[in-house]
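Good morning,

Attaching, inline, the backbone tokens for the sequence recovery test we're adding to the shared suite. The designed sequence is right after.
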């Protein structure tokens, strides 16, 4: 059983330069299960029970997507709206995600200069992830520092390959530092 679930969302993977390679770097890594939401649900007809089952069986959940309009691609919003049900993910009886770890893995066209006070986007990129962060907290999840690739518009292939290799190392480290689950009595 994989320990890390990567929920991947890119609506135009055939045009991707960055996530295509990040995905290739994650593919086949033991302990990491990549679930491509646009591939699984081209009509946005999300199988809520299947998604909840995937969440239950993984202690670490990564949301991997390109930053689109300072937000997530549409299917990830649909996924949040349908899968994170009241009484399951949040609310008095909604405790199923408590204690799990959540990390956003995203890329942005804008560079570090654009994502700072006084820059083109006026805020650090993490500010734009706040709705996801607060959603994780509402569900009792531990929010891990986001993994962000900035300046993707200007990245040349060798830089992208280096980012992909770094991402693979990041996944390995995350997997290898997970607490070992207690043996059933
Ligand atoms: C519809 C759309 C919206 C985008 N919105 C943003 C944005 O809000 N901020 C930003 O820095 N880059 C934005 N970008 C740039 C993407 O984040 C960037 O192209 C992507 O991270 C590169 O990854 P890829 O090669 O896997 O597509 C946008 C791109 C598209 C196509």
């Amino acid at each position: 059983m994989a320990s890390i679930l990567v929920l991947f969302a890119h609506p135009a993977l055939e045009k991707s330069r960055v996530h295509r390679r990040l995905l290739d770097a994650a593919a086949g890594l033991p302990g990491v299960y990549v679930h491509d939401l646009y591939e699984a649900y081209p009509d946005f007809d999300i199988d809520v029970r299947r998604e909840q089952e995937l969440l239950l069986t993984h202690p670490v959940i990564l949301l991997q997507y390109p930053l689109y309009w300072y937000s997530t691609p549409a299917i990830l919003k649909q996924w949040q709206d349908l899968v994170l049900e009241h009484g399951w993910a949040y609310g008095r009886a909604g405790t199923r995600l408590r204690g799990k770890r959540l990390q956003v893995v995203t890329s942005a066209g804008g560079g570090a200069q654009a994502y700072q006070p006084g820059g083109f986007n006026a805020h650090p990129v993490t500010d734009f992830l706040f709705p996801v962060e607060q959603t994780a907290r509402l569900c009792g999840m531990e929010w891990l520092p986001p993994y962000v690739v900035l300046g993707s518009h200007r990245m040349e292939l060798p830089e992208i390959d280096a980012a992909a290799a770094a991402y693979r190392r990041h996944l390995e480290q995350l997997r290898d530092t997970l607490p070992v689950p207690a043996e059933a009595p």
